[in-house]
Design brief:
Elements lengths: L1 H7 L15 H17 L9 H12 L5 H9 L1 H6 L3 H26 L4 E11 L2 E10 L2 E12 L2 E9 L2 E2 H13 L4 H13 L8
Antiparallel strand pairs: 1-2, 2-3, 3-4, 4-5
Length: 205
């Protein structure tokens, strides 16, 4: 179940977002379809093609998340404003984005078992924010997954994912705030770098 939950945090990450004229749900739906298409493609169902599939999945997820906003939110306003220099903010955002992406690429490749995604509806939270509600169907199990999205320029991008009441951002915020009680921003960044080095790495542009 844990792998399934983690996997669906990244189900929505695929092709570049459409223009702002599209609704959040209209933007999100083709992303889900594209990721599932890649996962179902039989040409990637051999160990030799796992790396190639990973590269394509990375391209699919790299542009749809608002990593800068997620990084700032995951640290919390206080630590973002007071614990990190401008250089450290940029470094943290880069390292955390790569760490987060690699973590869930692992789960995507390991956890997918032909689950179905049902779109329930969307709700505008503000002029520039919305929530798209979905549920994941796996045999007799239904898992609610809510995607929070915001406008960035002319695009809708994901800034948080809530699965069964658990927020991706709040989960990391709790971890980072606990670490920063006794360690510096530089030490937190070093910890993430160390973990990143142990992950499978897709090619970066």
């Amino acid at each position: 179940m844990k792998k399934l939950v983690v996997f669906f945090m990244f189900l929505a990450l695929s092709t570049p977002a459409t223009g702002i004229c599209a609704t959040p749900m209209e933007t999100l739906r083709p992303h889900v379809d594209e990721v599932i298409k890649i996962l179902n493609d039989p040409k990637y169902h051999t160990p030799e093609q796992r790396t190639n599939q990973r590269e394509i999945l990375w391209e699919a997820i790299s542009d749809i998340f608002d990593y800068a906003f997620i990084s700032k939110s995951a640290l919390g306003r206080y630590h973002w404003q007071n614990s990190f220099t401008e250089e450290q903010k940029k470094e943290f955002t880069d390292v955390f984005s790569r760490f987060l992406g690699n973590t869930y690429l692992d789960k995507i490749q390991e956890g997918y078992q032909s689950e179905k995604v049902v779109f329930i509806g969307e709700e505008l939270l503000a002029a520039d924010k919305a929530m798209v509600k979905t549920k994941i169907l796996r045999k007799k199990v239904e898992i609610p997954v809510d995607y929070r999205m915001k406008t960035q320029g002319e695009e809708w991008k994901i800034y948080d994912v809530n699965i069964e009441g658990v927020s991706l951002v709040q989960n990391y915020r709790s971890q980072f705030q606990s670490i920063l009680l006794n360690q510096t921003a530089a030490q937190l960044i070093d910890q993430l770098k160390s973990k990143l080095e142990n992950q499978s790495q897709p090619k970066m542009d």
